[in-house]
Structures are given as structure tokens and as C-alpha cells.
Design a protein that fits this description.
0% strand, mainly alpha
Length: 209
């Protein structure tokens, strides 16, 4: 079972690190603790790595994630901001910062992070319409309905004939319509959502709503 494999991995890395300081093994051990939901030990491992290697972005990512899981969202955001200062061209890291900042009510940071994630994602295989949803929420939380619609329309130009992407675009438009209380337009976009749902086979990502 998975837990048994994790136990084996934990013992392997502990043995490997007994008389040696191996950075990658310390990171791997932290990830094992995280997978086992041993967040206290994972935090200790990642924090120790960060203290020894302040520019080690993968350790910063791990620390931010374990802090988020423990509900320490403000600390998690600070760590993610440090990681992005060091390595900003990761759409996944920007997305994570956007999500944490959104939970913290730091809508300006969330807006920038999701916007950057969209720009980076256009040039990589890691782009995601989750970024558009996050950007839409961030903008609407700041009463920026015009900017939200512009962002949605810009993305829509890139995905005109993709039912999967059109579904997410319609959902984001419906968020704007709810904010502006445009019931007719909201119904129109929700109908498009249902239409595109019938054309897709995958599971709708719950982060969109």
C-alpha cells in the first residue's frame, strides 16, 4: 500500500542522511513527511533546508505548501512571494500564490499572480483556466468588473473552438454577471456552461467555482 511505500522511503532517506548532508535527500524526506500528513516534521525539514539554502526555491515551495495545510496562510504567502522573487517564471508557483493570496483577502497580489500565471501559461504546457477563474474572482473582489470582462474576452480569443475551455470562460462570465446583477446574461452563460458540459468527458475542476 502507499503508506508502506512511504514508510520505506522515510527509512531510506533517514539512513542516507545519517552521516551525510545531502540536499536532495532532505527535500525528498520533507516530501515524504508531507505525503504522510506529518506536517510538523515536514515543516521542520523544509525550514531547515531554507535556513541552509535561502535561494532553494523547491524547499520554499514545500514549506509554503505545508504551512498552507496547517492553516498558516499569511506565512505561506510570504514564503511563496520569496520563491517568486527568486524564480518568477513558473505558472504553477504563481497560481499557488494567487490561491493563497485570494484566501488571505490580498486581492491585489492575487490579481498580479493569476495575471502572471496566465501570461506564463500561454508559452508553456502548464497553462490553466483555473488562472482565469482566480483572476476573475480577484478582480471582482476589487469591484473591477470591466477589467474582469476584458480578461475573460482576451482568453476567449485564444480558445474559440474548444468546448472544454469555453465552459470555463462561460462560468467566469457568469461570475461577472452575478456581480453586476445582469440576470439575463447570467442565464445565457449558464446555458452555455450546460451545453459545453455535454460535450466534455473530463471532470470539472472544483476550483473554478
Amino acid at each position: 500500500c502507499k503508506l508502506g511505500l512511504l514508510d520505506e522511503a522515510e527509512q531510506y532517506y533517514i539512513h542516507l542522511l545519517k552521516d551525510r548532508n545531502i540536499t536532495w535527500a532532505r527535500l525528498a524526506l520533507g516530501k515524504v513527511y508531507f505525503q504522510k500528513k506529518n506536517y510538523t516534521e515536514a515543516e521542520i525539514q523544509f525550514e531547515s533546508l531554507v535556513n541552509d539554502n535561502p535561494a532553494y526555491v523547491h524547499a520554499l515551495d514545500g514549506l509554503a505548501e505545508v504551512l498552507e495545510m496547517q492553516g498558516e496562510l499569511e506565512r505561506s504567502q510570504c514564503i511563496l512571494e520569496r520563491a517568486i522573487d527568486l524564480s518568477p517564471k513558473s505558472s504553477m508557483r504563481q497560481r499557488k500564490l494567487g490561491a493563497v493570496a485570494l484566501q488571505n483577502g490580498d486581492y491585489e497580489i492575487a490579481e498580479k499572480a493569476y495575471g502572471d500565471a496566465i501570461l506564463i501559461g500561454r508559452k508553456s504546457c502548464f497553462g490553466s483556466l483555473i488562472d482565469l477563474a482566480g483572476l476573475t474572482k480577484s478582480l471582482l473582489s476589487q469591484e473591477k468588473t470591466k477589467e474582469a470582462l476584458e480578461a475573460i474576452e482576451n482568453i476567449q480569443q485564444d480558445h474559440k473552438n474548444n468546448p472544454d475551455e469555453n465552459l470555463y470562460v462561460s462560468l467566469c462570465k457568469s461570475m461577472v454577471c452575478l456581480k453586476t446583477k445582469d440576470i439575463a446574461e447570467c442565464e445565457k452563460n449558464l446555458n452555455l456552461v450546460f451545453k459545453n458540459l455535454n460535450k466534455r468527458t473530463g471532470v470539472l475542476n472544483p476550483e473554478i467555482v
